[in-house]
Amino acid sequence: MTRRALLSGAPPAVVAACVGCAPERSDLRTETEQLARDLALFQSGNLIKELRPGGYLRILALPLLDSSLATVAPDAECIAWIQGEELSRGIATRFRVAVLNGIRPLRTVPYTWRRPTGLAISSGASHIALSLAPGGDRRVLVVNGETGTLEHDLSGLVRPIAGDIERLVITADGTRLAIGSREAFLVADVLSQRQLLTRRGRFPALAPDGSALAFVDDNRRLVVKNLLTGAETYPLKGWRTYGLARWSPNGRFVLAGTGFPLTWWLKLVAVDTRTGGYAKQGYLLEPDYGSYLEWISQRMVRALDPFVHHREILE
Predict the structure, then answer these.
(1) Quick count: other Cβ atoms within 10 Å of Cβ 216?
(2) Predicted TM-score of the model (pTM)
(3) Scanning 123, 136, 220, 225, which has its CA 20 to 30 A from the CA of 205?
(4) Span 258-308, pLDDT tens digits
């Protein structure tokens, strides 16, 4: 459905306000259709949804998955999740990170701290970022993806951010990390353990190469900030952004849940971060508004087949 069709019959205030809105671009169709052939969407540790016609919805049962903590690498070619071992009364008290890349057998990385609250992995899971809050003391750690040994403790950087940490996003090479709460976020240089940017806003998402950052500001605008030049753009001008997911592996598109003021429906869109505009990927009903979606390669979808509990063809 086109923007004109959606607005037909809408109140005059809505139509007037939409003048200058970022358009749904038909010229992006070929590129997003290619994305749909190569990639699917992974959500909350237990769902894989294909976007191509005749694709499947898969429900996963990942071994020993704890608290739905699972994530995909920036290149979409590796998945990791937190495993919990039930030691007494059905409560997990020991944890480890499971890693699967579809090439090596499933491996587990030892973990010696308390239950994590957040997880992010670099490409190949060579670096693993974890957030935890033992006794309300927020910590952010980066560990070696093979041995689990501590590489960097970034806990001291998160003090200026109010609230619980709800998002971690690491770059493909593991050198930059975005840490976000519901109120603010920061971008850290992992190696030097220093802040590159601190700002109000929500859902920070680093481009795979770390050159740009997307986030939602206090006015529900999608902002893309070039971290090299400091320049900012608004590729969804005129639309409210309610949730922001992750960048595509090629560093061009970012997934967002968006809607227009005074309307009730929300769309999942792939936003062109370079030139603006979007291509619709579907509609959203879930309460997270698309913020927990990640791209996952079709190769990884096949690698996860042994853990598929249920599948059905999407209409």
Answers:
(1) 25
(2) 0.90
(3) 136
(4) 986 666 678 899 999 998 989 988 888 656 688 889 999 999 999 999 999
